[in-house]
Amino acid sequence: MELTLWTYEGPPHVGAMRIAASMEGVHYVLHAPQGDTYADLLFTMIERRDRRPPVTYTTFQARDLGGDTAELVKRSIAQAVERFQPEALLVGESCTAELIQDQPGALAMGMGFGDLPIVSLELPAYSKKENWGAAETFYQLVRSLLKNQLPAPGTPKTSPLLWKEEGRRPRVNLLGPTLLGFRCRDDVREITRLLAERGIDVAVTAPLGARPADLMRIPTADANVCLYPEVAASVCSWLERSFGMATIKTVPIGIAATEAFLAELAQVLDLDPRPGEAGASEAGASEASPAAANGAAGLGERASRLPWYSRSVDSTYLTGKRVFIFGDATHAVAAARIASKELGFEVVGLGSYSREQAREVRAAAKELGLEALITDDYLAVEQAMAEAAPELVLGTQMERHSAKRLGVPCAVISTPLHVQDVPARYSPQMGWEGANTIFDSWVHPLMMGLEEHLIGMFRHDFEFVDGHRSHLGDGAPAVAPAAEPVHGAAAVQMGPSRSEPAATATLLAEPAVETVAEVGVAAAGVPIWTPDGEAELQKIPFFVRGKVRRNTETFARERGVARIDAETLYDAKAHYSR
Q1: What's the rounded mean pLDDT across residues 289-299?
Q2: Spatial CA neighbour of 414 closest among 399, 402, 403
Q3: 491 forms bridges with which residues in the sheet?
Q4: What is the DSSP string of 240-263?
Q5: CB of 448 within 8 A of CB of 409?
Q6: Could you confirm whether 474 is annotated as catalytic?
Q7: CA end-to-end span of the chain, whole Å?
Q8: Strands 201-206, 223-226: pairing kind
């Protein structure tokens, strides 16, 4: 067991709760102590839902452990069925209740509820986590509801071209969106609109907004779109094996991916590509193609503002920017592709906490010449981020906090998220409009970072003294960070108000005199920064200042230099630029 302040994923029963809360007509009976009922807050506070999730807790207490907790489970199940009249019942246990081994699912099965579908969830809380729990719950629910529709052995598989034989429009299922996912609500709306433009209907969207009766209509579609593999990959795989349903696996995040998504749809459903689409498909087949990267083949060029800007004169500020990416596998891999191939960034770090999709993340990192970081330790991610010295971080809300400490701009691209990442406005990540949203949310922090640097450069000008707080807030390292004190005496001439530096404020460095503390630091092998060295360091843009500081200290240690002044700083710069 490891104590931690934050975690990327909750236990698997939280994933099951996401499925239940995302659907209509489904109720979840959770065998859990009072302390495990905290998950309600995730939906009411983060998702800003107007109702609690459809969950009944047994809420056993310590004194109940000496009695018959199984009877408590049966009583809670009976009360939930009578009160809520669910169309399907999920029964499971939390990590604490798992130790008691009451087997609530088996108890529910034997209570005689007639035709009520009951799904017994066995979610190993000590080896699996939230996304796996959501995927397993969705899989077990779909499999339970469709067991009576399974084709007999030897039955020919359904063709994805059945729509032509029946003389109707093709239809697909959108599988994977849930509550507490990243912009799932808006992604579904964007992809539904995109499909409608191609003459494709959506049969079922699940689990988000679906009822058990809707899940039973899944086999009526011609193909499944796996929008979020973390949740839907196992269901799509089972539907493909059992019903012969084709799966559209391309996740349409970014210009090239959206074009590839449409090309895969056209291939699977045998659709005629529209003018310009054939070229886009061919260009999309080679990700090295500039046309594919910028959407120049037609579709993306007309539908999104990202491609033309990424080729414009203004975009030269973006070229080569160092980006560190961490999140769930789907969004991290998509972000790496967009950053490197569509915006001209340099990806200097790529990782994910999604161990089930680690192979895909490692493959994407290998293409970029990187080693993927697969971990659920946010401190390890923060350390890797600091070592990579990026100019922009794309991550979760944890990386947002870490980036603030490092003084680096950050955009959230993945769960886990906070309420500010669940906007009331339309803000998808998929499709053409999703590309616009991504462009805005990634580029604006960089532009603000430039503004931050300019404010730092002109901080002695009276026009920039008061009221110019940037997006980095008070903690922005426009001056020497508190964690890295300036050694040596320095004084700033203050204006009349004592709170603002005067327009002619200067940094006055006294003659270097080693204090007892400085001698001790030097003796320990840690170089000391002199006032003039610190002053020169502050002239370097904040987003690379940390790396320059580390390189200079390494340079000084290797050469036995105890005091780092301005001359040492420039010697180090010359050394590392060779």
Answers
A1: 42
A2: 399
A3: 508
A4: HHHH--EEE-----SHHHHHHHHH
A5: yes
A6: no
A7: 47
A8: unpaired
Q: What is the pLDDT of residue 508?
A: 38
Report strand pairing: 118-120 vs 88-93.
parallel
* Residue 450: predicted pLDDT: 52
What residues form DSSP beta bridges with 248? 225
Q: Give the active site residue among 314, 440, 461, 466.
A: 314
d(CA 53, CA 43) in angstroms, rounded, equals 7
Q: How far apart are CA 432 and CA 428, in angstroms?
A: 9
**With contact defined as beta carbons under 8 Å apart, do 435 and 306 qualify?**
yes
* Token digits of residue 196: 């409608």
Can you read off the two tokens belonging to residue 418?
């906070």
Query: Alpha-carbon distance 339 to 319, whole Å?
Result: 10
**Residues 72, 75: Cα–Cα separation, whole Å:** 5
The answer to whether residue 500 scores a pLDDT higher than 60 is no
State the Rg of the chain over Cα.
Answer: 28
Assess whether pLDDT exceeds 60 at residue 489. no
- φ/ψ of residue 224, rounded to 5: -110, 140
Q: Are strands 563-564 and 171-175 parallel, antiparallel or unpaired?
A: unpaired
pLDDT digits (tens, 9 = 90+) for 216-229: 999 999 999 999 99
What tokens does 173 get? 């299922």
And the tokens for 33? 């102590």
For residue 408, give both structure tokens. Answer: 């680096």
pLDDT on residue 197 = 92
Distance CA 261, CA 484 (A): 49
Q: What is the dihedral of CA 291, 296, 301, 307, to 10 degrees?
A: 50
Regarding pTM above 0.85, the answer is no
Give the residues across from 564 on adjacent strands: 529
d(CA 573, CA 578): 9
Q: How confident is the model at residue 343 (pLDDT cuts 50, 70, 90)?
A: confident
User: 326 and 349 in contact (C-beta within 8 Å)?
Assistant: yes
Residue 535 neighbours by CB under 8 Å, 6+ apart? 507, 509, 566
